[in-house]
Amino acid sequence: LAKANGKNQWKRYEEATHAALLRRMQIRVDLDEALRTGAFLLEYQPVIDLKTGVTAGFEALVRWHHPSRGTIAPAEFIDVAEESGLIVPLGEWILNRAIAEAASWAKASATPPYVGVNVSARQLRQPGFVDTVLTSLRRHGLAPDRLVIEITESLLLTDQGNGWSDLRTLREAGVRVAIDDFGTGYSSLSYLRQVPADILKIERSFIGNTPHSDKQRALVDGIVRLATTLDLAVVAEGIEQPAERDVLAKVGCRYGQGYLFSPPLDSDSATRWLQRDWIPA
Ligand code: C2E
Ligand code: MG
Ligand code: MG
Ligand code: MG
C-alpha cells in the first residue's frame, strides 16, 4: 500500500511539474506576442516621506494584460522573460515608459517625484545598458536624479564584478540606485560599505511584525541605523498598518511604501494622486 501511495504521489508530482512546465512554455510564447502588440503597462506605487506625508517618488511596476487570462503579475513572467532573453526588449520598454511618465510629472511640479524602475540581472549585464538609460533620460528631458534603478540585494551580491561598474557609471551621471528587498540576501557589512547605492529598501517581511515583536523592531532599528551611518536613505516596503508606519517613523526610517498609503496606481490615477498631493493640507 505504501508503495502504491508513493507511486501515486510521484505521479501527481510529475503531473504538476508537467503542468507548470507547459504553463511556462505557453507564457514564453505569449510574451513574444505581448511585446509586439503592446500588452504591457506600468502601474506606479507612491513612496511617501514619513515625516511630511509628501510623495517622494513612485515605483513603476509592470503588468501584463493577457487576452484570455486577464492581468498577470510580474512574479509569473519576469523570470520566464529573463530565461528567454525577452527581458531585454521588455526592460527597455519599461525603462522608456517610466522615464516618459516621470518627465510628465516633472513638467507639472516644482518638486517632482522620482520614478523607481526595477532592473533584473540579465538587463543589468546587457552591454549598452548604461547607454540605454542615459539616452532615454536625455530624449525625455528627465533629470538623472529623478530616476532610481532598483536592484535586488541578492543580484547585487552575486554580480559584483559586472553590474557594479555600470551602476557606478550611472551614479556618476546622477542616477540613483536602490538596493531592493534588503534583508533577504545575507549581505555582509563590508559589502554594504562598498555597494554603489543611495537607497536601501527594507523587504516587506521585516515590516509586518514590528508593532508586536520587540526583536523585530530592534532588527529594523538596527538596519535603519546602519543604513544611515552609510549615507543610505531608507524605504520600508509593504507598510499596511498605521502602527507599522509609526514604529518605522520612530526608528528614523524616512520613507515608506505600501497599501496603507496606496496600492500601485494606473498612470491617470498617479497624476491625480500628485495633484491632490500639491494642495496644501
Ligand atoms: P518589488 O520590486 O519588491 O515590488 C514591490 C511589490 O510589493 C509589488 O508587487 C507591490 O505591488 C507589492 N506591494 C506593495 N505594497 C504592498 C503591501 O502593502 N502589501 C503587500 N502584500 N504587497 C505590497 P508586484 O507588482 O507584484 O511585483 C513583484 C515583483 O516583481 C517586484 O518586487 C519586482 O521584483 C518584480 N517586478 C515588478 N515590476 C518589474 C519590472 O518592471 N521589471 C522587473 N525586472 N521586475 C519587476
Ligand atoms: Mg522594487
Ligand atoms: Mg522590493
Ligand atoms: Mg519584492
TrEMBL record:
The keyword Transmembrane is assigned to this record: yes
Keywords for this protein: Membrane, Transmembrane, Transmembrane helix
Superkingdom field: Bacteria
EAL domain segment(s): 24-278
Protein name: PAS domain S-box-containing protein/diguanylate cyclase (GGDEF)-like protein
Shown stretch of the complete protein: 713 to 993 of 993
